[in-house]
Design a protein that fits this description.
It is a single chain. This protein is mostly helical. The protein is 73% helix and 0% strand. It has a single domain, classed as de novo design (two linked rop proteins) (Up-down Bundle). The protein contains eight helices and no strands. It starts with a helix and ends in a 19-residue tail after the last helix.
């Protein structure tokens, strides 16, 4: 029976493939695939919302510039913070680089603070409060900030699930074999900083009231 050795080889190859598949499944390989895609998807949504916010800022700045005597320092900080945030190339690979990720979240946190201050200061200008275009932009910005919060929350949860798998036994062995590194996440300090309302300080001396005519 000349074909018998070849049949045995195929049979053993099939058994080896089956054993390997079961081993990878038991060690979390398929879970790594699923959770890695989940992290990528949630990160993409975070970037989309940050981009949406960035696209709103030029219109907001242009509207505020039309208000006489608006605090130039506040406006400048928004423009500079946006420039720093957009200078960082926000690629999908950013989630695998802890140092780059930290710089990215710090820049976005700075922009969040600058925008918050601008909205607070704008309350002191009746013309802006009455400007329907500015109010529409403000509503869009606040809605975008809410979507950013939701998207970040989903990303945080996705990364937590992935990192637990990467650190747990025996799936951590699979992580080492296939180079599934622990992914960086938004830090507690960063979340706390973003949630603190900006402190508004008006250092400019008050303009004296004109003397009453007699």
């Amino acid at each position: 029976m000349p074909n018998q050795p070849r049949t045995h080889n195929r049979f053993f190859a099939l058994l080896a493939t089956l054993a390997l598949s079961l081993g990878l499944t038991g060690c979390g390989y398929n879970d790594f695939q699923r959770l890695d895609e989940q992290v990528k998807s949630s990160w993409s949504e975070v970037l989309n919302q940050y981009q949406r916010r960035s696209d709103l800022i030029p219109n907001i700045v242009a509207t505020v510039k039309g208000e006489a005597n608006f605090e130039q320092e506040t406006l400048t900080k928004v423009v500079e913070a946006r420039a720093r945030a957009t200078s960082i190339q926000a690629t999908p690979e950013l989630v695998n680089n802890p140092e780059a990720f930290q710089k990215f979240q710090a820049a976005q946190g700075e922009l969040t603070g600058a925008l918050s201050r601008l909205l607070v200061v704008s309350e002191n200008y009746p013309n802006l409060k009455a400007n329907q275009g500015f109010q529409d932009l403000r509503v869009q910005l606040e809605g975008t900030e809410n979507r950013i919060t939701v998207a970040r929350g989903r990303y945080v949860k996705a990364v937590q699930e992935y990192n637990v798998l990467a650190r747990s036994f025996p799936s951590n062995l699979t992580a080492m074999v296939f180079s599934y590194e622990v992914k960086p996440n938004f830090t507690v300090q960063n979340e706390a900083q973003i949630s603190v309302p900006p402190t508004v300080s008006f250092d400019k001396p008050a303009t004296p009231a004109p003397a009453a005519s007699r």
